[in-house]
Amino acid sequence: MFSRYSSGILRSLIRTMSTTVPENAAASVVATAAAATTVPKESSPAQAKQGKKSKKAEQQFLLKTPKGTKDWSDKDMVVREAVFKSLSDLFKRHGGVTIDTPVFELREILTGKYGEDSKLIYNLEDQGGELTSLRYDLTVPFARFVASNSISNIKRFHIAKVYRRDQPAMTKGRMREFYQCDFDVAGNYDTMVPDSEILNITCEGLVGLGITDFKIKLNHRKILDGIFEACGVKEEDVRKVSSAVDKLDKSPWEVVKKEMVIEKNQPEEVADRIGEFVKWNGTIREVLALIKGSELLIANASIQQGVSEMEILADYVDAFDINKYARFDLSLARGLDYYTGLIYEAVTEASAPPANASELKEKAQKEKGKSAEVEDASEYVGVGSIAAGGRYDNLVGMFSNGKSIPCVGISFGVERLFSIIKARAAKDLENLSANHTEVYVMAFGGGEGWNGFLKERMTVTKKLWDAGINAEYLYKAKANIRKQFDSAEKSGAKLAVILGKEEYPAGKLRIKVLGQGQDSDEGELIDSETLVESIKTKLDAHNVDGLDYITRLVRGL
Amino acid sequence: MFSRYSSGILRSLIRTMSTTVPENAAASVVATAAAATTVPKESSPAQAKQGKKSKKAEQQFLLKTPKGTKDWSDKDMVVREAVFKSLSDLFKRHGGVTIDTPVFELREILTGKYGEDSKLIYNLEDQGGELTSLRYDLTVPFARFVASNSISNIKRFHIAKVYRRDQPAMTKGRMREFYQCDFDVAGNYDTMVPDSEILNITCEGLVGLGITDFKIKLNHRKILDGIFEACGVKEEDVRKVSSAVDKLDKSPWEVVKKEMVIEKNQPEEVADRIGEFVKWNGTIREVLALIKGSELLIANASIQQGVSEMEILADYVDAFDINKYARFDLSLARGLDYYTGLIYEAVTEASAPPANASELKEKAQKEKGKSAEVEDASEYVGVGSIAAGGRYDNLVGMFSNGKSIPCVGISFGVERLFSIIKARAAKDLENLSANHTEVYVMAFGGGEGWNGFLKERMTVTKKLWDAGINAEYLYKAKANIRKQFDSAEKSGAKLAVILGKEEYPAGKLRIKVLGQGQDSDEGELIDSETLVESIKTKLDAHNVDGLDYITRLVRGL
């Protein structure tokens, strides 16, 4: 397929592609003589940027998905659907109702909600009419939804794609188009009551996916902001100092301190003071004891308020028996502007970057050349948090002339969960079929006047469909036995229904259990009239424990 | 909320909004003093187009979704999810596997695939990097997927959103962001075998949604193009004449003829000849007989080929017993460029525009003023086709250096199906709860030392969740009985579990059936140990026929 290109061009094309194309998608260069297309090939993103166009009789373009996106298919898709089902069942179990908002919002709805990350928002082209942007998360659209429908309380869940023009790390599940699975509670309720249920949902959701080696890092914005204040940070600098602290899960303290002092103009002694406190972590009650033991901190009004809320939370975390997962960690900051209270992130071992991350990153950048952006960061980043969220009491108010509806929520990162589950279940996945076919309908015959019974196979299969049974047959008028068995095996069907040249006209059908070698037995001859009933009985016998294969696989059973 | 604006500005804002905002979303003007936003309000689409910006201390913007889009929530969402489930079960029943492709594609992938409709494609802004566009349908991304993964055969389904910058008609389910539910078969198979199964899937899918008063209009591109050829249309004019004929479901012949003669430069006698043939419709065999009776037509090689394929199809349609739904209609053209064989559209009575459509359209335009675009066309258009598709044998080849994989598929228009189901089931929807809550956990007590049993309610509810039971409780430390019963009723729960001030510490819980008036009975006192078991038994008793309420509602039972 590549033969018509000079190897030099090819090498450079392939280099561009190699890190952005997912494992299961073969990217290729396409030349279309059909020329229905009128836009000529842009041979590199840089050239595309300049908008250069040149007419050619023959069209060429890269056959791939955009950077940071991928196709999902086959077994991956079956696993991901099972993860979605597990999470939406979880959300329904907790009283959630689901909503769906548009993929793009009026641009002004998103503006000013994401702090330093606003630069990662995808804009739609101005083609006349409104200015719009792809949603960056599901939280801001939810707040807009609550405000525009004047809702006073709701437990809503939303499983949908969001978009960020970020550095992708495809094999770590960090992508430009990715799913979020969000559960949020909006409404005026007693302190920490919905918050603690959200923490319980996070634990229940992860355990339900067979993930038990996680920790939920907790912090409270009022305590964190109070620490900054107590250490001497000016009010207007709090958010930018906070976003530096947010990098502590990826960078060592020295790097973060440098950012604070040099980029963010904080006196060195202020940074050092902060450095002492953000090291504290432990159980909720342990860290509360440390804070209350610090005269500097406990004198701060904001910290006092945060501490009293965390004390209430500690009680509820006990009632839900999830203390073993919780870790109060004063270094947790969360980048987004809109959080106002409790914040949290679930992490596993896979969340952290490799120990020699900075070395690997330097190497990748050296290979790429100083000017070019590294296409994929999978080698030197971790999976990151697998679920994260917090309380945001003022966001709805930004859309409703200040009439606030307090909210708290959690967002599960499905791609990241998926990469953990896939690694864990690699072996079990071999036995998984992407199809849901239960029965394969075939005809056996031959000799004079044999027409392959295509119409008869159609009629019989239709009876199965109408009874709600998943069934296929070969799309050939005449098909030999071997081909039909091969297709049946590929389809994952458990049973074959066989129309014999003599048997079928005599009102008989043969049912054979598949997967036991095609010659092992003759199957069972039944009256055609009893087909549906016989099939249903035999399929029931295949079910074990009331749980199908994929459910057990995703739960890690 | 509106008080700070002059009533003149307000009136014009409200007028702009009134037709684009869906029934369930209250649009409002928002003034945010918080001023975290930096982009000022654009007071009208026209102004936005000019890109004018002016700094204001106070931000104002319209609180709505972009034109032609809407939020989905509450019962609508429950019905739509049930429609999705019905269709994905259908697709799995026929051996389908599902895939997921990105919402945006490299722009050159979409270019030149949609004929006159290409102007409706949404582009993403060039923010550096690749040029991309939102997908216009799921078919072209599917062909790109097949080519880039070198797939030789697949039955795939895909339920996802697509985007068209078209004139919306919101209450008719014609939107700029809408779902398609597609099933396509790719691979080399015997003539009309997958095609006929796709027709059967269309019928099975609609009947499964309780829609039985539909017809599937059929035509064959080889016959249609042959008619144009036989009537004297030049080869290079065939597609544009075809796209004029495609408008016959919305406009009378005189209007279409005018387009052919004046806009598309066809001689009047050519148009008149075409006009005779595109009137023909009936059963497959009836129209085949008419074509074979015409010396002009049957002499054409392309028509001969189409006729022989339609004869095979007629047999398979008989085998599936779906002849009563099929209507061979020579006026069906389908706008898209990529079809090469059989084409079809399912229509119901709601598909057609109102009898006085052109009158209503003129009125709407007059009201709006000549220059302005009518915001919503719901008044004067029909729902349109509720499912449509066809064979496209060359599309994959456009992505794979000409290596063709023949394809045939169907796309269900969910929003349109939804609007039909919602109109039919309006009364039943009153009894539908958007929640899935089964049990509400409450505490009864009072007097000295009564603390509301919040932690105890948490512990008991947690036991239910862990057993997979959907359960809620009131997010208040202390809550009176009335409030708890009110919330239980809102949640749609069938059972209440009551923690009594004396009973609970004694190891007892009370279970009460809800929805029978709160004072009707005392409920049943059980041992706390047997809670999960008792609840499961009582919930089972609520199930009828093995089908839940929403399934029956969507099936029209």
Task: Pick out its properties.
homodimer; 557 residues; alpha+beta; BirA Bifunctional Protein, domain 2; 4 domains; nine-stranded mixed beta sheet; five-stranded mixed beta sheet; 20 helices
Written overview of the protein:
2 copies of one chain form a homodimer. By secondary structure, chain A is α+β, with helices and mostly antiparallel strands. Chain A has 4 domains: 57 residues, no CATH class; 189 residues, BirA Bifunctional Protein, domain 2 (2-Layer Sandwich); 127 residues, BirA Bifunctional Protein, domain 2, CATH 3.30.930.10; 102 residues, Rossmann fold (3-Layer(aba) Sandwich), CATH 3.40.50. The first copy, chain A, is 38% helix and 17% strand. Chain A has 20 helices and 18 strands. In chain A, the strands form 4 sheets. Chain A has a 9-stranded mixed sheet with strand order 3-6-7-13-12-11-8-10-9. In chain A, strands 15-14-16-17-18 form a 5-stranded mixed sheet, with helices on both faces. In chain A, α3 packs antiparallel against α6 and α3 packs across α15. The relative contact order of chain A is 0.11. The N terminus of chain A is likely disordered. Chains A and B meet through β1, α2, β2, α3 and β3 of A and β1, α2, β2, α3 and β3 of B.
